[in-house]
Amino acid sequence: MSTLNPRQMVAAPDQTAIGHAAKRKPSLFACLVDGLNGLGSLLIFAMMLLICGDVGARWLFNQPIYGVAEIVSLTIVAIVFLQLGSTLRHQRMARADIFIDGFIARSPRLGHLLQALFNLLGLAACGAMFAATGPLLLAAWSEGEYLGVQGLFTAPIWPIRLIVLIGALVTALQYLLHLIADCRACLVVGKAQEE
Question: What is the Cα–Cα distance from 13 to 6, expressed in whole angstroms?
């Protein structure tokens, strides 16, 4: 029998999960999510080097590096989708924490239900992105879509669409994990309130 009151039990799962996560070996999925985040960080560094190189080439040789604008525009999309799952996993997604935390403190069950609804909507949005990107990826691959000007610089579109597809899938799975955790928290709070 637990000596915690219902409000303490609501706060405990988040704190306990953080404490246990630091002690246990991360799951394969967690390693994948954080690995994609690391790859996104490397792309940020590479993009910075490319932009600085372009500025330097313009200043020193009065000659730009062709395709910098196209590469940067594609890279920004890739970075967002590579890092989106990790942002969600580490609970850094933009939301009104003051509202959610206060709601959980006042009404734990309804607060977790609200979070579950947020996660369900996120899952639906990422699922829709995944479903919409699949056909676009196949079309970009089969038709050889590219960005840029022929003769100067061209870059294929399909790698970025593949990254969007993978990022949307990983983020949808992370939303699903959060949804399951919030539903479990609702059940724990409900049982604690009944006792």
Answer: 11
